[in-house]
């Protein structure tokens, strides 16, 4: 069986920029500051202490929607960055919403101003875990263009931390999810005053692909896109026990390509986005803009409007 690692106190101390464990809240004037790059690089088999997860997820860009995991604003402005071209309070991402509490529904509407939710899941997932009916909020869904090519764990075992496997899988997502992606970008173009949220199941892969496309269109730097993606490692900590059980079931005690690939598939690595971003450029003439034109049917004027709306809304 795959060993579930229990990290020592010294390791977690290194996750603080100060190199020290945080003092109790009553003894400090400021919240502890964490080394986020090291934190998000934590192997999925390793638990991140609950107090650290709770603290990080209580701050922007994360938003605490009761009953919803991995929810956050995709704008880096939400966390105080002045480098993000995307305005805060417009585009949110998360995991599935079927367990959203009554308080969470109110939060979505009153605190975030969400008017539209885009469900990126396939029909089978929606039947198994139906989207909640939230009064005053429209849920938008569209079927896949075709049945996705099955994921082969061996594609993630090529010595590049799964980068090539993720590039292949994420390009497939761009193909099969084109109808719902088109609806999201239409919303960005046509409704700049209406904040929206998009989600898949865990808020990792399909949501990660869509977030990357939006951020690329807006002109976000590569580092910001990768950072947004890797924050999912913290956001999905609540799912970690389930993921490790799946991992143990599929890998057993083996060390072959399938076992190695499953580990990379369950992890959240920067290399996934490092491999995916150039794959977009190599697969579509004009990169993200080329994809939006050739596969989603937008023209240059549409792209210019969407880019402007992601930064500063244009009201007619």
Automatic annotation (TrEMBL):
Pfam families: Y_phosphatase3
Positions of the Tyrosine specific protein phosphatases domain: 182-215
InterPro entries (alphabetical): Prot-tyrosine_phosphatase-like (IPR029021), Tyr/Ser_Pase_IphP-type (IPR026893), Tyr_Pase_AS (IPR016130), Tyr_Pase_dom (IPR000387)
Entries under SUPFAM superfamilies matching the protein: (Phosphotyrosine protein) phosphatases II
MF terms (GO), sorted A to Z: phosphoprotein phosphatase activity
Annotated protein name in UniProt: Tyrosine specific protein phosphatases domain-containing protein
Organism of this sequence: Aspergillus glaucus CBS 516.65
Upper classification of the organism: Eukaryota, Fungi, Dikarya, Ascomycota, Pezizomycotina
């Amino acid at each position: 069986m795959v060993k579930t690692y229990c990290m020592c106190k010294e390791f977690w101390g290194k996750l603080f920029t100060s190199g020290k464990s945080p003092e109790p809240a009553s003894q400090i004037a400021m919240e502890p500051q964490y080394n986020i790059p090291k934190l998000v690089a934590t192997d999925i088999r390793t638990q991140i202490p609950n107090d650290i997860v709770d603290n990080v997820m209580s701050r922007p860009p994360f938003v605490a929607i009761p009953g919803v995991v991995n929810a956050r604003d995709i704008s880096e402005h939400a966390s105080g960055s002045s480098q993000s071209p995307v305005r805060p309070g417009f585009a949110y991402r998360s995991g599935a919403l079927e367990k959203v509490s009554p308080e969470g529904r109110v939060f979505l509407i009153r605190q975030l101003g969400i008017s539209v939710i885009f469900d990126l899941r396939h029909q089978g997932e929606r039947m198994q875990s139906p989207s909640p009916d939230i009064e005053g909020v429209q849920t938008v869904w569209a079927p896949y263009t075709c049945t996705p090519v099955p994921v082969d764990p061996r594609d993630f075992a090529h010595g590049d931390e799964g980068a090539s496997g993720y590039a292949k899988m994420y390009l497939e997502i761009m193909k099969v999810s084109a109808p719902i992606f088109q609806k999201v970008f239409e919303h960005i173009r046509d409704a700049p005053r209406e904040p929206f949220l998009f989600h898949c199941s865990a808020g990792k892969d399909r949501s990660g692909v869509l977030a990357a496309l939006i951020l690329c269109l807006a002109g976000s730097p590569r580092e910001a896109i990768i950072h947004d993606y890797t924050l999912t490692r913290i956001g999905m900590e609540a799912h970690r026990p389930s993921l490790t059980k799946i991992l143990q079931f599929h890998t057993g005690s083996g060390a072959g390509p399938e076992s190695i690939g499953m580990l990379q598939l369950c992890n959240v690595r920067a290399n996934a986005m490092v491999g995916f971003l150039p794959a977009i450029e190599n697969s579509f003439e004009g990169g993200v803009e080329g994809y939006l034109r050739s596969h989603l049917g937008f023209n240059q004027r549409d792209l210019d409007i969407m880019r402007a709306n992601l930064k500063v809304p244009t009201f007619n």
